[in-house]
Specification:
mainly alpha, ABC transporter involved in vitamin B12 uptake, BtuC
């Protein structure tokens, strides 16, 4: 359980920080595609008998680089869709050659948070630290290219370079998360808390911290409730992520109505 809490904490922090920019840049579809690449890499690694994190990293980086390089300027929908179907197909092929098909596909798609070993903590923690450091290093360029891309280019930022850099960060985040929460559930953890945080505050720094806290609360609560009820952790992760976004939207709607009332009372 200590390994579970530690790994889940790293995943939640990374998902909150990286997820903020995914939502800000409108890259939710890309965030769905890259973990599918990681899923295929993990399946291939299991087939040839190497560490799954190696396969996760290699295939997720290949998928992210392919989307960034093949996508048109400001449009990645076609490249993203092709990446999803290609990587899912490769993952299914790799798993069909394995003698442990059922257990492999379940753990890779839905995670194995209760099966994290002490040896897995070091690479998960190291990759998580790299992801957060990478976002912190280029926080301002990412903000410019996300909110004011034309202004960013006028100041010398290359949009394609920033896009490639960011997608590589997403690939590393997927490598961290897929062994713990799975290729399907990391999507909800990347999007839900970050979208909720943006509903609560428009300040970028506060939104990043709040997204990480919401993701952390989501994962911790999911583990505790799953342990108490013996129900799948994935159900609680997905449900709580969606619930946090619903609460955020309700808060934003209430605040929009409340501000004119306060202004008229003053």
């Amino acid at each position: 359980m200590l390994n579970t809490w530690a790994a889940a904490t790293v995943v939640a922090l990374v998902a909150g920080v990286v997820g903020f920019f995914i939502v800000l840049r409108g890259s939710s579809f890309v965030a769905h595609a890259v973990p599918q690449s990681a899923f295929a890499g993990a399946a291939g690694a299991a087939l040839i008998g190497v560490n799954a994190i190696i396969g996760l990293g290699v295939f997720s980086i290949l998928g992210a680089a392919g989307i960034a390089l093949l996508g048109r300027r400001g449009r990645h929908d076609v490249a993203t869709a092709l990446a999803i179907v290609t990587m899912l197909g490769m993952g299914a092929l790799f798993l069909s050659w394995s003698q442990e098909y059922s257990s492999q596909i379940y753990s890779l798609l839905f995670g194995e948070v209760l099966g994290v070993s002490r040896g897995d903590l070091w690479p998960i923690g190291a990759l998580g630290a790299v992801c957060i450091a990478a976002v912190a290093l280029l926080f301002r360029p990412l903000m410019f290219s996300s909110i004011l891309p034309d202004v960013g280019e006028a100041r010398g930022l290359r949009r394609q370079h920033i896009e490639l850099y960011f997608l590589l960060v997403v690939a590393l985040a997927s490598s961290v998360a897929v062994p713990v929460v799975g290729a399907l559930l990391i999507f909800s953890l990347l999007i839900g808390p970050a979208a909720a945080a943006r509903s609560f505050t428009s300040n970028p720094g506060r939104a990043v911290v709040l997204a990480a806290l919401i993701a952390l609360l989501t994962v911790w609560t999911s583990i505790a409730v799953s342990y108490a009820t013996n129900l799948p952790i994935g159900f609680f992760v997905g449900t709580l992520s969606a619930l946090s976004y619903g609460v955020g939207r309700a808060w934003a709607a209430w605040w929009i109505r409340r501000v004119p009332q306060l202004a008229s009372a003053a």
